[in-house]
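Reading group handout, session on sequence-to-structure problems. Before we discuss, look at one worked example. The prompt was deliberately terse, the way you'd type it at a terminal:

> structure DNA 3'-5' helicase

The input record follows.
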Amino acid sequence: MTRPAFTSTSTPGSALTAAQLASSPPEAILDGLDEEQRQAASTLNGPLCILAGAGTGKTRAITHRIAYGVRAGVYDPHRLLAVTFTARAAAEMRSRLSALGAPGVQARTFHAAALRQLQYFWPMSIGGTMPQILDHKVRLLAEAARRLHVTTDRATLRDLASEIEWAKVSTLTPESYLEVATAEGAGRPAPGGVDHRTFAKLYQSYEDVKLDKHLIDFEDVLLLIVGILEDDERVAAQVRQQYRHFVVDEYQDVSPLQQRLLDLWLGGRDEICVVGDAAQTIYSFTGATPDFLLGFKRRHPEANLVKLVRDYRSTPEVVKLANGLLADRTREAPRLSDPAPWPEPLQLISQRERGPMPKLIQHADDDAESAWVAAEIAALQEQGVPLSEMAILYRTNGQSQAFEQALATAGISYQLRGSERFFSRREVREALAALRTSSLVVDAGDEVSKSVRDILSSHGYSTKAPEATGAVRERWESMAALVALADQLSTEREDFTMRAFITELEERSAAQHAPTVDGVTLASLHSAKGLEWEAVFLAGLSEGLMPITFAKTQKEVDEERRLFYVGITRARKYLFLSSSSSRHTGGRGRRTPSRFLRPLRREMGLEEPGRKIAPTAGGLSPNASARRKKAVTCSTCGAVLTVATEVKRRRCETCPARYDEALFAKLRAWRMEYAKELEVPAFVVFTDATLEVIAELKPSTDEELLKVPGIGERKLEKHGDRLREVLAEG
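And the output record:
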């Protein structure tokens, strides 16, 4: 059969080679752009804001704008800085600019650009030896906690590290953090199970440890260059002389600290172009905010505004669901008690031919869902869709295990994305060391691929993927990716040698440009941003996972909706949406489908699944109304509860769970082991209903524990100490 071609986002028109462009007038660079892209690319001066929806060719628009400006003589390529958020995106931008005849333009991440400036200006502005950059905060945070006699575990330390990163990019010191976090209406939860005041002390202690050891972290790179530019006019003038024009990609993801740095680079000038999409803001936990994108026109009243809405990536069927998801939030807003500002979303218009209808299905349990996904993937592969053009996306990394097992059982190759950086993995470092040693004696072009296989066979490589998951599988993935890259390069390059392969790997390591395996991608929704596949499986779409349990406020739920939107818009042609009623086979089906699926069902013409409707207060008699005041009602829908297990849970069987699913799973595992130790049935310790309420309320004191249905004085005395230990561990 003829295999279809699979490419990344396509746009109209044919591209000219760099040689053809060099001999053509500058306007030739604009050929092939659509009307809105051309408007963006030909607007070379003054502030420009490009609102670009998913799949609308934003990178194409801004790279053509830069190349056109260079060819037209408006831009000096060495005095223009393009900044984005990932090394991969920066590398892609440099590659495109080079192909368009503008190879001298710098395209870097915020951190890479800031680090380069810091290293250059450190001797003249600060003097002495520049501190080393700390890779991970956990080790220093552990020492900071010990100095304060604060007990922590690794999970807590990771939470604390994330909060420090958020505080720093939000330009908060330990003192100002405490003021902001405890302000009335702030609504910021205390991190890592410690109160805000203790965290502020830990934050200060971490800074002290860092200073003692002559270290800085990644956020310090931005803070230090900001400090230098603010305090040293000579340095600021030199930077502004170097860079006259700026382009900022993914502008919806800038933090207050990055905006502060950008303002210092500009120095009051307005030669800036920003591009972004507020509907794709999904990193607020890192300090990212769409406020700067949405307020750009307010800060620059004379700015030109261009909207890119022609979607060249996804079929009309996929685009319709994406639009419907965002429109549903707009319809809901007037009915909400605490609506967050919600900008009018871009309505995408698909430019592709019609495709298959997305599939939406609910399964009995996680095993049934993962088996179905594996079967659908096998069917698509039979139709000619490469495994590398398929992805399974989920909300949390912990959901990957079931899909890994199902794919391994089906003999389908896969790769995990979003875990440890490829070139930072221990097995990759060991493999590179072995390859370097071998390159001293092996240097024959035709034999490179075979030699790589032989060398890596002692590091976990084999021609067949292992059935095991976890560390064994990840090691094999790493080795297979290196072998596949060697095969590719030996085919593409003449006179390919082992030394050339080592050089390629070192360059990729510096840019964090990881090779890939020809397999299905498994990734969290957050790590899938900026990527696309022919077929996408959005799995685990149940309340408590999408939106995640801890999304309590409207602002947090809105971000979960945007995260789901990002997932939908990763698909070019095939889209599958699935959920399961129960975690385990034979379970009681406590889960309900995500609320975000409701507008999608409407768009697809599917019926809403049955659910319990709470009686209205107006339909009750006075006596019934009085009785209802004393009755236990569902904490979600308000219906009167009469079934004992529902009363214990404080919610209807059909209403979405409000508890922390990860904590619930941990409590059940603890109960099982503890019951074995006591030689009693598990339910004698605590029932599932009681554990659900514990996972929701997360009680920490005896008084709070006694408020949980199913825990009385006797059980508290008998099991309380052990239960508190589990809860303290998070």
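Points for discussion. First: The first helix runs from residue 18 to 22. Second: Confidence is low (pLDDT under 50) at residues 333-341, 610-630.
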